[in-house]
Write a structure and sequence with these properties.
Radius of gyration: 33 Å
Distance between the termini: 82 Å
Helix content: 55-70%
Oligomer: single chain
Number of domains: 3
Shape: elongated
Largest sheet: 2 strands, parallel
Number of helices: 11
Length: 284
């Protein structure tokens, strides 16, 4: 058998059947290791339901092969051909493996990916520099609340944390008009959960703190420059409109359309993106 075998299949095309065949083939391949062979096989899937189904199918198939069930005749033929053994020999191996699995069910390694990862991390927690009695946090909101609380405890004590939180709060207060830094941080965590944010998070992780600060300052300067330019241009449009006798009533949407956008820009207020679509002066 190949050491690495990739099976590509769509939904409902028989992945469970194929995985079951491979598992049994490996488990019964060595007659001297029937008691322990299955322990050396790791099968992982995405959900608990799929893992339970695969376990059931493996045990059921082992029994069906031994009982000469016609439904597994094709599978039996495939395994005997692969291993080069007789059907009766395969039947005896299958029933023995079936019994060994039932007697050592905890060693039957068919689980979910997250369950396997958890076991792996727990086994190597010292190498990963994690505390021994760590727990898996499933309540994401509770996790964020605790992290934000710990971060705020360092505010005023740790210079780096104080600087970052202060800069973040100042920038968000200007945009959102809210003064509570904990609320602002909590609002920001909602962005982190979005799938589209992940590529950007990975990019940000590559920068050092000093580099991020420099990038932030550069972006803030650019935003300020463009905001100033847009306000200047909005003011210029108002001056042009005033000198040519153009009023809000002459615009699409009147005082709620293009004219309203200009007023908001001039006052440096936030405008929704759709305000900039399909807005123009009527012909005079």
């Amino acid at each position: 058998m190949k050491a690495f075998h990739v099976i590509t299949a769509s939904a409902g095309s028989g992945k469970t059947y194929t995985l079951c065949e491979h598992f049994i083939t490996i488990a019964v391949s060595d007659p001297q290791q029937l008691k322990h062979g299955f322990k050396r096989i790791l099968a992982v899937t995405f959900t608990n339901k799929a893992a339970a189904e695969l376990k059931f199918r493996i045990l059921q198939t082992l029994q069906d092969i031994h009982n000469e069930n016609p439904s597994v005749a094709k599978l039996t033929s495939s395994i005997t051909t692969t291993l080069g053994i007789s059907t009766s020999e395969l039947q005896q191996r299958c029933i023995r493996v079936h019994q060994f699995i039932l007697h050592q069910y905890s060693q039957f390694s068919v689980s979910t990916l997250d369950s396997f990862t958890h076991k792996l991390v727990r086994a190597f927690h010292q190498e990963l520099e994690l505390p021994g009695p760590f727990t898996i946090e499933l309540d994401v909101k509770g996790f964020y609340n605790r992290i934000i609380g710990e971060l705020m405890d360092l505010f005023g004590k740790n210079a780096t944390v104080t600087g970052v939180v202060s800069d973040f709060a100042r920038s968000r207060i200007h945009d959102a008009g809210h003064w509570d830094p904990q609320f602002l941080l909590w609002s920001f965590t909602e962005l982190l959960e979005q799938e589209r944010a992940r590529p950007y998070i990975e990019i940000i992780r590559q920068f050092k703190d000093s580099e991020l600060k420099a990038q932030h300052e550069s972006i803030v300067k650019s935003i300020f420059y463009y905001q100033t330019e847009v306000v200047k241009r909005a003011d210029a449009v108002f001056q042009y409109a005033s000198s040519h006798g153009i009023t809000a009533a002459m615009c699409i949407g009147k005082s709620r359309g293009f004219w309203a956008v200009l007023q908001k820009i001039k006052k440096q207020q936030t405008c929704r993106p759709e305000f900039f679509e399909n807005t123009h002066f009527e012909k005079c």
